[in-house]
Amino acid sequence: MERASRDSPGRADRRLVRRARAGDPAAIERLVARLACVPRFLTIRSRRSGPPLPAEDLADLTQDVVAAVWSRLDSYRGDGPLETWVRSFCLFALSNHRRRTRSRRRVDPRDLLPRGHDEEESRPDPAVGSALRSALANLRPGERCLLERKLLRDEPFARIAACRSTSIGAVKGRYYRALERLRRELSKRFGRDGDGALPP
After folding, report:
1. According to the model, what pLDDT value does residue 117 have?
2. Whole-structure pTM value
3. Whole-number average pLDDT of the chain
4. Residue 107: phi, psi to the nearest 5?
5. Most confident region among 10-24, 103-117, 149-163 by mean pLDDT
6. How far is CA 125 from CA 111, 119, 129, 138, 149, in A?
7. Which domains does the chain carry?
């Protein structure tokens, strides 16, 4: 009892982490329960730092943080309570998420036109539509379908994920990879190194 009374929260949590990493089922269960702090931290911090995260983004970010924490348990030294250490992961992940979100605005189909094309002063160039169709045809069928659903129909990621029986995070990753492939295909056709079509 005397040792427990003098024990700092960090030291006790360090022992908990060691037992969990060793495979102790009770310790693992307690550790998982302690990680319930992650969505609370993310929710509170997101409200203070900007618009609150949508539920789907909060769920994705929670999974990312928990996975990162679990993979780095060996680096926890018990200098403070476990929640304090976990909070640093939350702040880092949220900061990265905000930065990525700012750099990814919704794609307007007009962005697929090469720079300098003025829709009001010139007729639409048939070569543009032809190049776009050709670029899309060079994508994998799944990528082409995903771009059409998101770009042209503006379907929510949640709906696309449900139809594909996968996670929202996986759909977002595939979408942005498909956008990058489309950007490269269009750059080849317009003879420009990225000066063309899609936003970063």
Report:
1. 43
2. 0.51
3. 76
4. -75, 125
5. 10-24
6. 14, 9, 7, 21, 24
7. 7-103 (1.10.1740.10), 109-116+123-190 (1.10.10.10)
